[in-house]
Sequence to fold (308 residues):
Amino acid sequence: MVHTRRIDLFIVKKCCNRCIFCSERNNLDGSELSFEKIKNILVAERSKGANLVHFVGGEPTLHSHFPEILKLSKALHYNTFIISNAIMFSSYEFCIKTLPYLDEIMISIHGHNNKIHSINTRNPAAFKSVFQGMKNLKKYYKGRLQATTAITSLNYKFLTNIAELIHNFGINEYQCMSIVPTGEGSRKFYEIFPKFSVLSPHVIKAINFCESKNIKIRFSGIPMCILGDRYQYSYDLWEPFKIDNQKDHNGKIRLWNEPGKYIENNFKIDIGRIKTRKCKKCSKNSICGGVYEKYFLKYSDAELVPFK
Ligand code: SF4
Fold:
């Protein structure tokens, strides 16, 4: 098995959307890392064994030297990965300059129609662009293509519809994620993230649909017990989990280093998840990432049902 060492490299702090749940909002000052700095980091990390680079933003494709950065990372034999709002891929010229150098792209899509995607992204032009972007990617892109949706009170009933939309564009890997309670996601968490008891039937419906279409679906930031007997669709199981990451913290167990994530230079999407007293009785305790503390503080652990 080839060992992967990944770095998450923040290259740009700007975005053309203003998502209502943006976890990076506090950091988006419009700046970008210089090409020289990026080059130095890529060279240094490669010599230390890194072989996968995740270019992070903001919106990474907005870096003014994005095509050059991709060419350099390929010349250094990195595998390259981005999460993108796909707006730049609505341009044929941009696709031609960048797609040959990208190994994995995860498209952010937060609604199955213009209204919901536009409200979630606070960008009235976003849906038209992401639609054209997916069309271009279907036509011109040969790498691994995935999609992701941040679950909000506006779209949770339509996860199946979003899965169907991406499937029509040939995308067969789909990640649905909880709102991450940092930045705007923290300020608006209770306003925009549905309660698990309300969300759960729609999660199961989306899983059933994806199974029928052979779409690989997974859920991040959601406790395994909320997925019930479909817990194998938890993102927590997608990367190796280390039980010694757990540390007792005021009667709760906190994950200091999340499953499969690296300590340095890495993007920790699961930060802030905790285990409650109920989890101590749960047979999945060692493989589940727990519940966001932000969620627990308002709603407690009443909806958690420990596995026997
Ligand atoms: S009870 Fe706790 S450990 Fe068990 S699945 Fe639910 S959140 Fe995870």
In short: The radius of gyration is 19 Å. Residues 171 and 184 are 28 Å apart (CA to CA). Residues 240-269 have pLDDT under 50 and may be disordered. Residues 223-225, 275, 278-279, 282, 284-285, 288, 290-291, 304, 306-307 surround iron/sulfur cluster (CB under 6 Å).
